[in-house]
């Protein structure tokens, strides 16, 4: 799958998409969901929760394993994808679209620039983690 | 252990070519899945799944005293087995702890095959060599043996096309020798999935031919399956995983395996004294099944609580593709036998679960 051009990526395989209003939507990358396999449960934070960049804000569980979701940027949760409660498989089926996880109002928008762009992420994957 | 130090099974290249995700397991590089664990799991329940389980250990005991010798090592009773019959048993240490759980095939009165867990192979061998008495010799044939498992309701009809053996006469926990795809094979109606099916034991040289012949049935109901779904299948069937649900610090009585400890039928065996003491005193905990009622996934190590107080711990847990719920196995302390509803601690959340007796899944016969 092509890595979307206008997304930013963390070394922990989260993506963040700038919504242009001080918020980002985030999820996990195609590579991350593929490595996890069939996702059967997503533990989401609550709206209003605040996280520092790198904090674990939730959990994705596949049949085989448990993986933390880390905040790619600092800020407050302003929306959660509650469809994942009944359809966690959306993270597998559409990691960059309907499988989004939360939306974060950034407390430090400069952090977005610290994340890798699509090209940088692809070479990061290619070179091995 | 780096990937370079992992052992490869003889069919390794087949797996890589088939797109398997290879993972380290018991010192081997093994396929955990080819496509999706859920799909492979359901394929075994509804059609047929083919597993390469050549990492498993195969140990032979031969000689006129083979039956006596093996019977002294195990908790179940071999004496009533006729040629071609198999049994499930524990092999215990002197303290009654479970060294391994294994399937034993009586091939002839002087020839017995033990199928042991890969991770325990060397420990088992030294235990067997230390405890073996009488006129019998033990040999490890694991490295020369391919073990395949063909499991699921369509297993018999697929295998029937590759052999002249009358599979209908091979009942559950029986075995027979015969040719499969031209290769001399031990065909056993055993498995670790809770489905009908077969396990095939054959020499390494025949592996390509038999595995290749079976792969041709991928367009007729056969699915290549990895160890990922083997674990979810055995969990649904309530089957034990040694090293997780049972180990040398666990005894068969507390693990609900009293049915394979035949105090009354046999004489002395390794661990008998200790197990009799345990039986007299009563077990300190009991093995039970749990179905999660709230959201989440049960995993090994999660605490089991009643009104906030710990009463046990999970040893296995996963998502069950058949039940579409999370299920687990674990031990609950003495005194809580009647408890039906508990809470499981999942990363700081307390989630309701219901106690059940395994298996979670039983095939219709």
Q: Specify the CATH homologous superfamily of chain A.
A: RNA polymerase II/Efflux pump adaptor protein, barrel-sandwich hybrid domain
Major sheet details of chain B: 6 strands, mixed
As a whole number of angstroms, the C-alpha radius of gyration of chain A is 13 Å
The CATH topology of chain A = OB fold (Dihydrolipoamide Acetyltransferase, E2P)
Question: Strands, helices and their partners?
Answer:
The complex is a heterodimer of chains A (129) and B (365).
Chain A: E1 8-9, E2 14-18, E3 23-28, H1 30-36, E4 39-43, E5 50-51, E6 56-62, E7 66-70, E8 75-80, H2 90-93, E9 102-106, H3 111-114, H4 118-126
Antiparallel strand pairs in A: 1-2, 2-3, 3-9, 4-6, 5-8, 6-7, 8-9
Chain B: E1 7-8, H1 12-17, E2 21-25, E3 28-33, H2 37-46, E4 48-52, E5 57-62, H3 66-73, E6 86-92, E7 98-108, E8 111-116, H4 121-131, E9 137-140, E10 145-151, H5 155-160, E11 175-180, E12 183-188, E13 197-203, H6 207-215, E14 222-224, H7 227-236, H8 272-281, E15 285-292, E16 303-306, E17 309-320, E18 325-333, E19 341-346, E20 349-356
Parallel strand pairs in B: 1-3, 4-14
Antiparallel strand pairs in B: 2-3, 4-10, 5-8, 5-9, 6-7, 7-8, 10-13, 11-12, 12-13, 15-18, 15-20, 16-17, 16-19, 17-18, 19-20
Structural account:
The complex is a heterodimer of chains A (129) and B (365). Chain A has 129 residues and is of the alpha+beta class. Chain A has a single domain, classed as OB fold (Dihydrolipoamide Acetyltransferase, E2P) (Beta Barrel), CATH 2.40.50.100. Chain A has helices at 30-36, 90-93, 111-114, 118-126; strands at 8-9, 14-18, 23-28, 39-43, 50-51, 56-62, 66-70, 75-80, 102-106. In chain A, a hairpin with a 4-residue loop joins strand 1 and strand 2. The two termini of chain A are 19 Å apart. The model of chain A has no long low-confidence stretch (mean pLDDT 95). The radius of gyration of chain B is 21 Å and the shape is globular. Chain A binds chain B through residues 37-38, 40-41, 43, 59, 61-64, 66, 85, and chain B through 32-33, 36-38, 41, 228, 231-232, 295-297, 299, 318-319, 321, 326, 347.
